[in-house]
Design brief:
10 strands; three-stranded antiparallel sheet; five-stranded antiparallel sheet
C-alpha cells in the first residue's frame, strides 16, 4: 500500500522487471485518506467492496522524465501530465486494475442535428460494455464496477490522421484529452452506454486563450484506461489489467460539418 500526497515513483517496487525479490501481487495507491481511510482500505483488501479506482495522475518511472519544475510549458521536453507526456509512464493516468474482466465493443460516434438543415451541435458516443464471466454477477448489490473513460485526440491532417500538430502560432495540441468518465454499476452481462458530448467540447485552446473547434480528424478512444497505456499493463500481459481501449474517428470540416472518418 502506497500512502502519499501525490504521485510517487518507486520503480524497484512498482515495476516487476526491476524488483530484486518477488514482485508484489498488487499495489494500492491510497494517497492521503480521511479519518475513514483505514476502514475503506480494509473493505477493499478483504473484498467487501470491488476495487475499481483509477489514477488521477500520471506516475512516471523517474523524475528526469519530467520537465524542470519551474518550466510552465506543458509540452516542454517529454511533456507533463497525460495530455502531453511522450514517454512510457510507470502507471498512466486513468489506470486501475480490477478483479473483473470487462470488454468494450460496438463503438460509434454520430453527429446529432437539431433540425434538418442545421449543423450538428453535439456528437453521440455509444458503445457496449460487457462483463466477462456472467456467473460473478449479483443484482443486489452489483458486484462489478467499471469507470468508463472517453478520450479525444486531434490531428490536423484529416485524411492521414497524422499529428497531433501545433497551432500556427505555436500553441501545442494535447496528445489526448479526457472528455468524459462515469462509474458504471454492472447489473447484467452487457450495458449499452450512450454519451452526448457538445461539439464545442472538442475545442482546443490557442495561445491567446481562445477556444477553437479546428477542422481535422478527431479520434475517440473508449475504455477502462487511457489510450496510451503500456502493453505490459493490459490484458493478457496483466491478468487484472484492462483491455486495450477501442477507437474510432470523425472529421470536422472547415465549415463545421461532421463526417464519419
Amino acid at each position: 500500500v502506497v500512502i502519499s500526497g501525490s504521485a510517487v515513483s518507486i520503480p524497484e517496487l512498482m515495476n516487476p522487471t526491476k524488483t530484486d525479490g518477488p514482485a508484489p501481487v498488487a499495489l494500492i495507491q491510497q494517497f492521503y485518506p480521511g479519518e475513514e481511510g483505514g476502514n475503506a482500505l480494509m473493505d477493499v483488501v478483504f473484498g467487501k467492496v470491488d476495487f475499481s479506482g483509477k489514477l488521477p495522475v500520471t506516475i512516471v518511472e523517474k523524475v528526469s522524465d519530467l520537465p524542470p519544475y519551474l518550466e510552465q510549458n506543458m509540452s516542454f521536453g517529454m511533456g507533463r501530465t497525460y495530455r502531453y507526456f511522450r514517454g512510457e509512464p510507470l502507471y498512466p493516468f486513468g489506470y486501475g486494475a480490477s478483479a473483473h474482466l470487462f470488454s468494450y465493443s460496438d463503438l460509434a460516434v454520430m453527429p446529432q442535428f437539431s433540425s434538418l438543415n442545421a449543423k450538428p451541435k453535439n456528437v453521440q458516443v455509444s458503445f457496449t460494455l460487457a462483463l466477462q464471466g456472467v456467473a460473478t454477477i449479483s443484482a443486489t448489490p452489483p458486484v462489478a464496477e467499471e469507470v468508463v473513460q472517453i478520450y479525444v485526440s486531434f490531428a490536423v491532417h484529416a485524411t492521414s490522421g497524422e499529428g497531433p500538430r501545433p497551432f500556427d502560432n505555436g500553441s501545442a495540441v494535447p496528445r489526448w484529452e479526457l472528455k468524459y468518465f462515469d462509474r458504471v454499476l454492472i447489473t447484467r452481462a452487457e450495458h449499452k452506454v450512450e454519451v452526448t458530448l457538445a461539439l464545442e467540447s472538442l475545442a482546443l485552446a490557442a495561445e491567446d486563450g481562445t477556444l477553437q473547434v479546428l477542422p481535422g480528424r478527431y479520434t475517440f478512444s473508449v475504455g477502462g484506461t487511457s489510450p496510451e497505456t503500456p502493453t505490459r499493463l493490459l490484458r493478457p500481459a496483466a491478468p487484472f489489467g484492462p483491455e486495450s481501449p477501442i477507437s474510432t474517428s470523425i472529421v470536422v470540416s472547415a465549415d463545421g460539418e461532421v463526417f464519419l472518418a
